[in-house]
Specification:
The structure is a homotetramer. By secondary structure, chain A is α+β, with helices and mostly antiparallel strands. In chain A, the strands form 3 sheets. Chain A has an 8-stranded antiparallel sheet with strand order 1-2-3-6-7-8-9-12. A two-stranded antiparallel sheet of chain A has the order 4-5. In chain A, strand 6 and strand 7 form a beta hairpin. In chain A, helix 5 packs antiparallel against helix 6. The first copy, chain A, is globular, with a radius of gyration of 23 Å. The first copy, chain A, folds into 2 domains: 119 residues, Urate Oxidase (Roll), CATH 3.10.270.10; 156 residues, Urate Oxidase (Roll), CATH 3.10.270.10. Chains in contact: A-B, A-C, A-D, B-C, B-D, C-D. The interface between A and D is large, with 86 and 86 residues.
Chain lengths: 305, 305, 305, 305
């Protein structure tokens, strides 16, 4: 085996899932930002750590963690995107041998508890409707900012058809002009670099994109989940000029009408069995025409086409 | 070993986690009820199945499943409690050798999606704020109905103290008069048999109990999570005369102020690390004085003191 | 509402899921014990904490955690049962107002990695075949010790029948004399107090019980999962005189023969779809005749009939 | 907004997580293959489904499911790699407009239960040590075959150091020459196209790679998890000429020595707290020198650098 030689290829390292909660308590009415932050660094010069265990250039994952917590105080967290941009810029500018990285966050929403009709100043409940996603990618000399959402679970009890598909030896599925359509949306959107440079109100944008995704899901009479996905992406891009492209992964969470005929009962789409596995899995990208492509922006982001 | 003899003790069997979705579509504005239903039967006469594999009295778990789906059509699902009462009554009355059982449901909430300011007729989003629980227990000749909630995650960013506890050789915890208090509430309540017999609007009651739990969590200035738990139970029992007792399991989801002093930064309860494990686990029962106890009602219910 | 009065019922509190790893490194060949430990205390005198937030008698959950870690050093962990007995005795004897508690552990197995045919001294791989369970319960003036196992997943590809069950309006299941039987065994066993007092080699017993459970599952030609459950309990009790009773929860993990007839293919029990939900759920207790019952020993233990 | 136009970018769709269990029962000694199979198709011509809901070219996800189950009978499952190759070839050759896809499988191991010293013919227990991974990628006119493993959890109780890393304002981590190193290995390897064409005994290769990964983890005295990762990749590539490259994601599962000094106890690396989050996350690629790169082979594979 002595004639086999190997080399180090793509790599990155860091500290994942730092659960950072930032309370703003300057006024009686507190604000809360609740994040799960991951930081990973890349650098061609890091190879020595892999090859020989020489850590002279390895910014410890513990240091990355400390920095993430410290930045929550020093810079605050106006939005997860703004916070990750600051974090990434710090590492790339502080350590000359670090030439890239991936910084990610999940954000968990909190709503104020209502007491006697008024929102409470410092008591919150987690609505759990969806998880917000943000990512900053520094790679190949550029930096990209992405927003997103996951676990946005939606269902239509009618207004969904599926027919006209090809039939071969293995096809048994019947055609339908009325079915339940349900999915749990994972979506990410890449911001146009010019918009990032000009400054974006990321929180307002997130709220608007969520509204657009939901209302489009509701309003589109669906002939295929693929079609609904595309219309959701189109609507978001139309609504917000800062977005260059949208990527989605949408499981088709099957609801099967339960066969009640053996019991002498009719079932006109009233009683369904909600299945776990297998599930359809529909993925797609919607791009703004004219926006420069940046496939490298998506490097290593989980769960995508 | 020939002189060892054994007997069958407590047992039950059935079909767990039937995911039943019921759509009411008589009007353009659809209604949706989304349940996870488990049915299990008990009977002294069932011992033969365990002892010899004689299934003459074993109502198949598949039959229990079919019945659960059929009842969603035949009886509908006004509330999970009403539905489980009907399901349990069916098994006990149809098979003379079945003398008890446990029927449980989780209910997942759906909200209407808003399109152009109006609630959509048949498109929904799952808010995910909490999961509703219901159970019907037939045991020792009686039937008990229980409601509940789980995964209700709440947090106070101030208004929580903890001090005055005893100190021994193993005590290192400092006293505090200002900490984050966060928990994920699991609560179950047992209904008074007389109230069940008279009829209860379970859906309205659930909504009111949730409001009371939230507002009490918010309003109580807490000296211990134990105290908050007790006040939440007291408030629910005071609010609804149908409730005989409340049981809670509340993890103390620790948020530790991150030590930023090494970085020259002060941290006056602004930046926290949200820990996963270990966690405090506080459990307690609040009972209405004068209501007859019924410990058997809680047999086999998961996660309780 | 002023005439409603409430009281505190059953309660307990403590620190859950302390992940304690103990390395024995006195010799070059290290030993590892990997536990997840929960400690909870009970006491009638603790009511003041719930009622008024007076913590004078509340042994902090943080103190319970510290004690659990300290005992891993002071007393070592010969077996999870021995360790929990020492931990429980400490709390009850050190604080006169603590009159009971529940101490639980999961143990994760590690196997030595084999290098060049020899077991390594200090490198391990987690086999993940099952998780060992232990519990010590102090309640009503007595102390009970329980062992157990969960996540022991087994399957028979033949040797399992199911027929002869009653048929009603909701029965559609066909009879079968050959099916896959698969389950994930959760089992707990209660030790006879006399055996505990005399001393038990808990580690050897656990290994033997696991062998007996597996070989009995394999050897019994099954007419119902209930029957297999009972025979597994009988075999364990016959094998070890220290065991007073066995309790099991066994999901029937359904494997459905996939219908290939539409594709012109026969399927003589060769291709199966392994379903997630719903699943059968069979639970039962096997007791040694003559052993005194101790239902209170099972108080609050998760997942049982 | 009328002047915004959008297009469809990268996409794929199919049926995920088909739980297929194949029993070989031609002899008394049964064999079992237990897979979780996902199939997704790509094709430029599929755009019409996304753009207009025209499904004329959409091979239904239900058809993909049926095909996956039927192939388990028609072609059998010699290895997950062989099976996925056949499945992918079928779709690409049967439907001219399908020009690519991604087919993935997880395989769950089963061991024979031992009864009276002999392996049982048809009773099995799941060892759960690791999950095998396989993938076939057809993209850009080429087809790539990948093997892999996940959830291989390993630990060294000594023989791991970490020091010499740079220190900045945010660095507090101490240097250590003796720590626990633990990780859960996810690894994937890409096979050389020539080796695939010549035929590979994938099952034997998997077994050998696992042995090599384990023994290398054990044998390397580690100065950084990065170094261990690289050596594991090197060893696998040296062992098997069929492998072009190895990619790994290795969380550094931190074990912190618990501070017992407040209790008057020494802790010379004997008692550890095993933390959940955050964790280090080390990722890297090891490539065989001279093997042509094929970055497109890794498109959409989960969890990688």
């Amino acid at each position: 085996m002595t004639d086999v030689s190997v080399s180090l290829g793509a790599n990155k390292y860091g500290k994942a899932e730092n659960r950072i909660v930032r309370i703003y308590r300057d006024a009686a009415r507190h604000e809360i930002v609740d994040l799960n932050v991951s930081s990973q660094l890349r650098g061609a010069a890091l190879a020595q750590s892999y090859l020989s265990g020489d850590n002279a250039l390895i910014v410890a994952t513990d240091t990355q963690k400390n920095t993430a917590f410290a930045f929550a105080k020093e810079h605050g967290i106006r939005s997860p995107e703004d916070y990750l941009v600051a974090l990434g810029r710090h590492f790339v500018s502080s350590f000359e041998w670090i030439d890239g990285g991936l910084w990610q966050a999940e954000q968990y929403e909190w709503e104020r508890i209502v007491v006697d009709g008024a929102e409470h100043d410092h008591a919150f409940v987690r609505p759990g409707r969806a998880t917000r996603l943000a990512a900053v990618q520094t790679i190949d000399g550029g930096t990209h900012v992405l927003g997103g959402v996951k676990d946005l679970t939606v269902l239509k009890s009618t207004g969904s058809e599926f027919h006209g598909f090809p039939r071969d030896r293995y096809t048994t599925l019947g055609e339908t002009d009325d079915r339940i359509m349900a999915t749990s949306v994972t979506g990410r959107w890449r911001f146009l670099p010019d918009a990032v440079a000009a400054g974006i109100d990321y929180n307002a944008l997130y709220a608007e994109v969520l509204d657009v995704l939901l209302s489009t899901f509701a309003a589109v009479h669906s002939l295929a989940l693929q079609q609904t996905l595309f219309e959701m992406g189109r609507a978001a891009i139309e609504a917000r000029p800062e977005i260059a492209e949208m990527r989605f992964a949408m499981p088709n969470k099957h609801h099967f009408a339960y066969d009640l005929s053996a019991f002498g009962l009719d079932n006109p789409n009233e009683v369904f069995y909600a299945a776990d596995r297998p599930y359809g899995l529909i993925e797609g990208t919607v791009t703004r025409d004219g926006a420069p492509a940046a496939p490298e922006a998506w490097t290593d982001l989980p769960a995508f086409v």
